[in-house]
Design brief:
This protein is an alpha+beta fold. The chain is 22% helix and 27% strand.
Length: 343
């Protein structure tokens, strides 16, 4: 797991930690550049090797060379002379789709393509950049990210609640921890989902072979408890429109759980949904799917509803965000295809 980015002690020549990873107990000896490439988004071998040449990579607090082989239990840290970019929270005048706002919180409808908070590779144009422009001061969460109580992925659209005060942050965070919030997502998935409704349970943790993916560990050996309830909304032949209600909130939870039961989210490139997973071998069908990918050039996932108890009034609040145009157009396309196929 990556440690929180933080400033290091002055005796470390004012270096700032950007990444920290501890090798798993089952780690086979692996060159440090290969080890880091599977864990750092947008990393290249050249950049990692240059960091090693500059003395910016350490194993167990010792500066190492680029040919160092990582062993089980090794702690690998990457340090640079500048603070991590995600700590540079620059206000940006980016329009926000504010669904609700009062003195202690606001609810926003995030568009697909917007990253929630600055991180490696995405230092500007994020929701947090927009929030710190919209509001003078926001409380920090446990990861030092202003206002954020929860998050959704970059290519997922939909609703997020933002805390404007420390008290609201603590109250809302407790509601998410206690699983009393109400969150429902709309997803278009590959295949004809057999049951009209069901529950997927299975601990979710990081994929040891691809650190940018998460996976289910059915034996419970790794990961954190995760529960997703789904309900079929519409059957469209080779794809199904489902609503998913989150009981827990793990990274990529719906994407991983639906893949686990054989129904990968349509056009989810990270989990293989950008390939034709169901259907015919006809050229005409392949062209149709390619066109559907172009209409919706992202995973077909939308955070449609969000409900929680207001931290001050105690009133139950529920919000709904309309399905965005790109996803709606893709659903219509599949609906027309399914109709003509059955005629």
């Amino acid at each position: 797991m990556a440690a929180h980015s933080q400033q290091e002690d002055p005796e470390e020549d004012e270096l700032f930690e950007h990444y920290s990873f501890t090798a798993d107990t089952g780690q086979k000896p692996l060159r440090v550049d290969k080890f880091l490439m599977t864990r750092i988004r947008n990393a290249t071998r050249n950049k990692i090797q240059q960091a090693a040449r500059d003395g910016n990579i350490r194993a167990n607090e010792q500066v190492i060379k680029q040919n160092y082989r990582v062993k089980p239990g090794d702690t690998i840290r990457v340090l640079f002379e500048h603070a991590p970019y995600e700590n540079l929270l620059l206000p940006e005048d980016i329009p926000l789709d504010i669904v609700y706002e009062d003195e202690v919180l606001l609810v926003v409808n995030k568009p697909a393509g917007m990253v929630v908070h600055p991180g490696h590779g995405n230092y500007t144009g994020t929701l947090v950049n927009a929030l710190v422009h919209h509001l003078d001061q926001l409380p920090l969460n446990s990861d030092n990210r202003p206002g954020l109580v929860h998050r959704i992925d970059k290519e997922t659209s939909g609703l997020l609640v933002i805390a404007k005060t420390e008290a609201a942050m603590a109250n809302l965070a407790r509601q998410f921890f206690d699983k009393t919030t109400r969150r429902e997502y709309l997803a278009l998935v590959w295949g004809n989902v057999a049951d009209d409704s069901g529950t997927v349970e299975g601990p979710i943790g990081r994929n040891p072979k691809n650190r940018l993916q998460m996976q289910v560990f059915p034996d419970g050996s790794q990961g954190k408890e995760a529960v997703t309830h789904y309900r079929v909304e519409e059957r469209l032949g080779y794809v199904t429109l489902v609503s998913c209600r989150l009981e827990t909130g793990r990274t990529h939870q719906i994407r991983v759980h639906m893949q686990h039961i054989g129904h990968t989210i349509f056009n989810d490139s990270r989990y293989g949904g950008d390939r034709i997973l169901k259907g015919t071998s006809f050229t005409k069908y392949k062209q149709f799917v390619e066109n559907a990918f172009k209409v919706l050039p992202r995973q077909a996932l939308h955070a449609r509803t969000l409900g929680f108890t207001h931290p001050l009034s105690g009133k139950e609040l529920d919000f709904e965000a309309p399905v965005p145009e790109d996803m709606a157009a893709c659903i219509i396309k599949w609906r027309d295809y399914a109709k003509h196929r059955l005629e």
